[in-house]
Specification:
single chain, about 20% strand, alpha/beta, five-stranded antiparallel β-sheet, Rossmann fold, five-stranded parallel β-sheet
């Protein structure tokens, strides 16, 4: 079991409380988290990644209980075991695609040990996602949105983190590009060691996943 959550809730300072369904995620699985605006999809993702502190309920990732970790330990757990594809990509504008992609290894010795040859690993992932060495050499401003997105995917996948989290990764893509992207993402993960959770409001993605978890309106 890569990820397991139980009775998670989150309360904002305003008093608004979010209640999340339990999730069990095994290696090779792809889960879609779907729900309307304001239902807490991004909050759920931030709890799963350890960015937000767990207030109530439990999260267990690769055998590690979040509630037993210090803040520093949780940050390291995220660096070692979680690859995040941000909605805005969060690429560094003055770095090339290659340099942006290898940033994920900077804070995790564990992920670095999973990569014997950084250039070869990035090139292999890039080829699988349809990117050339010329694109890897470009800075983000010289890339299309789709190319920037694929660099963000390589950064998330490099070093084989167990859990890949993606926040609205297809919001800027048309339906054809969306299906192509999800197919490429699924093909890029190791089904024996990695699993994927995608958060979206778009029900068109549903057939592309093993399971769909619905998040309802906030209480």
């Amino acid at each position: 079991m890569i990820l397991e959550t139980n009775q998670l809730t989150y309360q904002y300072p305003s008093g608004k409380t979010l209640y999340f369904p339990d999730v069990q995620l095994r290696a090779g699985e792809k889960i879609l988290i779907i729900g309307p605006s304001g239902s807490g999809k991004s909050t759920f993702l931030n709890l799963l990644s350890g960015v937000l502190p767990n207030q109530d309920g439990s999260i267990r990732l690769n055998g590690h209980n979040y509630e037993a970790q210090t803040r520093q330990q949780l940050d390291q757990l995220r660096a070692d075991h979680v690859g995040i594809i941000f909605q805005s990509f969060n690429l560094i504008p003055y770095l090339s695609g290659f340099e942006n992609a290898k940033l994920s290894l900077r804070f995790s010795e564990e992920r670095r040990t999973n990569v014997s040859d950084i250039r070869a690993s990035i090139t292999r992932l890039a080829e699988g996602l349809g990117l050339t060495s010329e694109i890897l050499a470009k800075k983000p401003e010289a890339m299309s949105i789709g190319q920037q997105q694929r660099i963000a995917v390589i950064r998330a996948l490099l070093g084989k983190p167990a859990l890949i989290l993606a926040d609205e990764p297809t919001s800027a893509l048309d339906p054809v590009a969306t299906e192509q992207f999800m197919t490429e993402l699924a093909r890029s993960i190791d089904p024996s060691e990695q699993a994927v959770i995608v958060v979206s409001h778009n029900p068109i993605l549903t057939p592309l996943f093993d399971r769909v978890v619905q998040i309802g309106e906030a209480a």
